[in-house]
Design goal:
Two copies of one chain form a homodimer. Chain A has 223 residues and is mainly α. Chain A is built from eleven helices and no strands. Chains A and B meet through helix 8, helix 9, helix 10 and helix 11 of A and helix 8, helix 9, helix 10 and helix 11 of B. Chain B binds a DNA duplex (30 and 30 nucleotides) through helix 1, helix 2 and helix 3.
Chain lengths: 223, 223
DNA sequence: GCCGTTTCGGATTCGACTTCTCCGTTTCCC
DNA sequence: GGGAAACGGAGAAGTCGAATCCGAAACGGC
């Protein structure tokens, strides 16, 4: 139960602390590469400790996830502040989503987190709401400034960007910054009169079969 | 093994034919509602036959899927022809994807099929290639006609629409024709100067939490 | 160093799920 | 009516990951 006498309540024994750190590092790595649903035993193995040690430190998968991504929310909020501080709201929006896409494209754990795990991880819903509020504010300002069409709402943007996020790791395997093209394209649209230069060149059709082969290969964690 | 004497080789006994039809109908229904990875036993149960009967008629899941969606490829090709026949390529493209989205939004089986199962079902890769060719031709003509920006390629469109397809069933649960809005929005873009009227009204933010909750809930079949 | 306590580790148990088969029974067709 | 084909549902077999158990090892105050 609670540390009874020999130990100060808040302190871990040295080996316990070391293992805890090893576990968090391993979890970060495994989540990043394989998504949030990697077998817990594998994380323990990667960390070089027994699985029971993992269960001892983190009774549930959610607890581990929450710990690993503890500071991600603050980062998102900071990016939101920064975006809202830009005088041109459209630019702020581009930068804001650029930040997010950069993370999501490179990390399957974050990807799972933003696209599916939100309702199951404590505190994540609040972060999601804050995100929506940021986007809503940026949209409103962009509409006032005349850079965004007036017949769209926050959900439109979120709904189109969410699924795209989900697909980004597949794109990243082809080229790590391919997400820039799709983000710009989605924001710009395809209409002839809306042409803006795209940041990076397109990929060829030879990737067609393979792309759809492993776009959704990893089973979504029900976490 | 092969029918030896009593039966003409190509003919099934009456009960066998009936059960086969029942199975196909049940499979169509279950695939449509639950995706391609429903337990085969459940399909048999739904059909009101024993599971062994299912395995007897369709030795593998893929065989069953192929049979159920046998004519879908022809339908897609026909839609492609029709789209290419339109004098305005942009309109043809809109109609073509409209047809596809309509199907995909209403049927999780077709959804799975186009977003993940392509490499595992015989004949599906060819259909996918035909689809890409159709889209490529439409894009080329639209670019010639000056209605589409010239710096995009087929894969750009496919890559943006694919993930969106995946998310459509979630949208359909809110409103069956919501896909129209997103398709139009994706094609139009968000820039102020590209504003075209959107066909249906947006959804409210109150769906935010729930949307991401079940957007990816169903585990992707590895089929 | 010693000793009681904490922590470790990994083999093992548990449980949920599907696929697929076996074989006695039923249905069909001639 | 009789022989072959088809049925059906229970259960065997395999997979996978979570969670536990308990003897062994590590720690740290004294």
């Amino acid at each position: 139960m609670a540390p009874s006498s020999a130990n100060p309540p808040g302190r871990l024994r040295r080996d316990a602390q070391r293992n805890r750190d090893l576990l968090l590092a391993a979890a970060r790595d495994m989540f990043s590469r394989h998504g949030l649903d990697v077998p817990l035993d594998q994380i323990a193995k990667e960390a070089g400790v027994g699985n029971a040690t993992l269960y001892r430190h983190f009774p549930t998968r959610e607890a581990l996830i929450a710990e690993v991504f503890a500071d991600a929310g603050a980062g998102l909020a900071a990016a939101g502040e920064e975006a809202l501080a830009a005088e041109d709201a459209w630019t702020g929006l581009e930068r804001y989503f650029g930040r997010i896409f950069e993370l999501v494209a490179a990390d399957r754990g974050i990807n799972d987190l933003v696209t599916q795990a939100i309702p199951t991880i404590p505190g994540m819903i609040e972060i999601s709401r804050g995100h929506a509020a940021t986007v809503g504010a940026l949209i409103a300002r962009a509409q006032e400034q005349g850079t965004m069409r007036r017949d769209v709402v926050t959900m439109d943007l979120l709904f189109l960007l969410g699924p795209l996020c989900r697909a980004l790791p597949a794109a990243s395997e082809l080229r790590p910054d391919l997400w820039r093209r799709y983000l710009a394209l989605l924001l710009d649209g395809f209409r002839a009169q809306a042409t803006h230069p795209l940041p990076v060149p397109p990929i060829g059709e030879e990737h067609l079969d393979r792309m759809f082969a492993d776009l959704w290969e990893a089973e979504p964690p029900e976490v």
